[in-house]
Amino acid sequence: MSVVTRLSIRARAMVVGGVASLALLAVGAFVPIPYVALGPGVTYNTLSAVGGTEVITFSGSGVPASVSEDKGPGHLNMTTISVYDHQTLFQAIGLWADGDYSLVPREEIFPPDKTVEQVNRENAQQFSDSQSNAEIAALRYLKYPNVVYVGTIPESSPSAGVLQPQDQITAVDGTAVTDYASLRAVLARTRPGQVATVTVDRGGKRVDARVTLADAAKTGAPAGSTQGFLGIGAVERPKAPFTIKISLANIGGPSAGLMFTLGVIDKLTPGDLTGGRFIAGTGTMEIDDDKGTVGAIGGILMKEIAARDAGATVFLVPADNCAEALTRVPDGLQLVKVATLSDAMAALKTLAGGGTPPGC
């Protein structure tokens, strides 16, 4: 007869219950659950340095003198959220009980059809794109002259293997191309089958590429067009004589676009956009239109907390995030609604003048 069978029914129940409790405790303490915890992340001042390296720097000729100005103590901070993966049940409960964290199904952050490495690469690419968008939006707002770049090149295009994405088109058959309108004008005088010499700036070097122009049917252009086509997605965007570099690593996602844009504008213009205030914010920067639309982002509540914890008193909120942002506003943090880059610039001007810009 075993020890257990000699015990009373009550004692046996206690033993079984104890073993079950220990098993549950072990599961809660050591077995990851299919959820991740999201919480406030770090913030970085786009006007300052991180790890001894300036976040936004300029090089080359024609850099405005304002870049070297002492802008004072003001902040234009980008914000992030932190992601805690492989949480055990007890760890997750602890973070949730803290009040500053939320739990979401892991598949929302790491889709089952992608590896963690793939997700991280996509996030890193989005972050890189946000830096490029910020540069374009800032230069466009400051009315730097436009140039035309080669965008997409379909495999069936007559330009495939001849032109490259990011080539800056400077001339066609010797006629200068300074913007999209001038490119259209010179191509309007061509015919399908004609060999055109397309002069491009490729990484600082002049390249004369010969392209056999296609007809409308082969490029997806409107039927009835009789001119020749390069078969590219041409992109018009501003260009400065100097180079802008944004240096931040190990961060993902597109949501820093607005704050990078404001940081670039602040450095390229005299004076201080912040008026000495600690301003933080978030939002993507769209460049598909001239408005400079500020796009909505995820994790707005956690970014508000991160901003306030860092010392911010003003937080720029994408207009489409305002309803959620108002559900929990940290004490001492003023929410400012921005739908476009112009809204953000107007709000900063109002704040610097002692006024109150539109809030959420």
Question: Can you describe this structure?
Answer:
The chain has helices spanning 3-6, 9-30, 89-98, 106-109, 116-141, 180-187, 216-219, 257-268, 300-310, 322-325, 341-352, and strands at 35-45, 49-50, 53-54, 56-60, 75-84, 102-105, 146-150, 168-172, 175-176, 195-202, 205-212, 234-238, 242-246, 278-281, 284-285, 294-295, 314-318, 334-338. It has 360 residues and is α+β, with helices and mostly antiparallel strands. The chain folds into three domains: 1-31; 35-143 and 241-352, 2-Layer Sandwich (Ribosomal Protein S5, domain 2); 146-238, Roll (Pdz3 Domain). Strands 6-1-5-14-17-18 form a six-stranded mixed β-sheet. Strands 7, 8, 9, 10, 11 and 12 form a six-stranded antiparallel β-sheet that branches. A two-stranded antiparallel ribbon has the order 2-3. α5 (116-141) packs parallel to α8 (257-268). It is globular.
Give the helices and strands, then pairings.
Blueprint: H1 3-6, H2 9-30, E1 35-45, E2 49-50, E3 53-54, E4 56-60, E5 75-84, H3 89-98, E6 102-105, H4 106-109, H5 116-141, E7 146-150, E8 168-172, E9 175-176, H6 180-187, E10 195-202, E11 205-212, H7 216-219, E12 234-238, E13 242-246, H8 257-268, E14 278-281, E15 284-285, E16 294-295, H9 300-310, E17 314-318, H10 322-325, E18 334-338, H11 341-352
Parallel strand pairs: 5-14, 14-17, 17-18
Antiparallel strand pairs: 1-5, 1-6, 2-3, 4-13, 7-8, 7-12, 8-9, 8-10, 10-11, 15-16
